Amino acid sequence: MPAATYYTSFTTPASVYTLVYVTIITCFILRTKEFVSAGVVIESLFDWLLIKEHEDFIHYHIRRTSLTIFVHSLLPLGYIFGLSLVMEDLSIITSLDGLWWSTLVLFSHILPFTSSFFILLWAYDGWSSHPIARTLSLFCPEGTSWKQLASTINADYRGIDKICLEPSSMTKVVVTDTWIIKISPYNVNLAHQSDSTLEVCSADTHHISVDGEGTVQYVTIEVKTIRPGLPSFFIRCNALDFNDLKNKIRRPIRILDGITFHKTRTDHFLEVFRETVEKNPTYALQANQELDTCIGCMLMEPQVKLVKSCTNSQCTICYCRPLWCLDCMAKWYASRQDQDRPETWLSSTCTCPVCRSVFCVLDVYLIIK
């Protein structure tokens, strides 16, 4: 039967199958939230082939990336096989002509064989030829192997004080005391903090609500290393996580001119709260009165005292000594407000974190010594 007859006879079922297959495979590759929650991802489907990430971080990702490359290389062949089942005629694979179809058939067969060849080559010498192992070898001092360095990274990853960020379903950023690690489907990028420089090169804001009131901002950071042979790579993080990231990384993070961080609704309120309190009267400490650290952040000295001075009948007298810094008091005040009505925050009231006496913004006095 001529090829044109085949095209005419299966146009509708082939189109439906193609649309369904492309949709499913796109969700599978991009690791959408629904597929992740259902366990339709490489890590869950082939858990029996992988070791535990917490036990052996490096070898886990060596196996995971290899398995991901192999499974993804089978997807074009899976499309052709599924199409032949839909048409109930296996001869379709060999009967159809045309440059695009021939190329697809050839590509779908070559891709798995090529990926299998490289994976077997990597595994043959104990994974020493794997891209992750070759990257680690660039960090190894003279006389040490990449497996020794992998053991130290594994121990570093097991630390409880590491930072793990997931800016998207496909990437993960791990920052330990020593390493900056970016995990992607096909590779793992590493940088040692001691020989790296970080630079915020862009920031993008996305609306997460129809009216635009809910927004989220992501910053893109370029990680450059002075170690020869290692390319730079980019990591992304939520702007709200940037301070945690900056505190964990021992190197300064340079922010390019023109990049501004989006302020959340709470951040805007904290600025207004501080400006209002600075206009209030001040509270003078007694000569022999000593201050401890703020019981909120445990870093700064107490900076405010609650003094009933407003005309609001709901407010009461607070007898607590100064215990809070201005920022912690502002955050406490914001957390006790109606989150759906930010326009009422400044004119509303709050309760003292210790004695529960009611106060408003006009009752917050800055301390002077």
Automatic annotation (TrEMBL):
InterPro entries: TM129. It comes from the Eukaryota. One of its GO terms (cellular component) is endoplasmic reticulum. Keywords: Membrane, Transmembrane, Transmembrane helix. It is a multi-pass membrane protein. Its main location: membrane. Pfam families: Tmpp129. GO terms for molecular function: ubiquitin protein ligase activity. It is found in: Membrane. One of its GO terms (biological process) is protein ubiquitination. The chain crosses the membrane at residues 6-30, 67-87, 99-124. Belongs to the TMEM129 family. This is Putative transmembrane protein. It comes from Rhodnius prolixus.
